[in-house]
Amino acid sequence: MAQDRHIAREYLEALIIAAIFLQFANTFVVQTYFIPSGSMEKTLLIGDHLFVNRFIYGPAPTALEHTLLPLRQVRRGDIVVFRSKENPAHTDVVKRCVGTPGDVIRVVDKRLFINGKAVNDSAYAIHDPPAGTPEHVPPDYYLRQLATRDYFGPFTVPPDSYFCMGDNRDNSWDSRFWGELPASYVLGRAFAIYWSVEDETSDGSWQGWGSKIVELGQKAVGIFEIGPKKTRWNRTFRIVR
User: Which fold has domain 30-239?
Assistant: First the structure.
């Protein structure tokens, strides 16, 4: 009996240590994230599940740290995951950084200009507007949004901030509408798709541990699922660029 209690205690200690390690890794090293909307198509699709590097955007490195550790600041072109400016406590968002501090951003007839020069973003940017006008949005408001979407700026990115846009420029709620992204809101850089499923997911907001456990169970079953909600195997372990 004493031996059984000893073994049970060892298992419990191992589980506690593993839980602490996973929480530490998820907070400071690698986090997971999924794509709930089409704002980053075709780079990222609804149902893509990502690994996010939480370590790369550490404090400004010294010369020694820069040599020994892979730390750096956010760069133009990085796909970053960050806390929502409108709901920072509960929602994370993914967009592409197109402007760093001091950059002058302008959009003219849907075309992006940085510091007066047109950006060649044809490798990833698309223009695929959502079908129809949302019923709950007044038409005049919707027209104003379209004007902001297609004609924006010039806007100078403030210090310690970034300007982020979705790759689907016609279907993205981004810095054109809510302004610059404070550097303190950045969580990490998306670097790989570890699973992709042809199914809608939640909106990215925290719904509690019960919802999280159900979600994890659905993922475990969904990996081997066939039919309408099947895994996109050709996107598995794809590097995000």
Answer: Umud Fragment, subunit A (2.10.109)
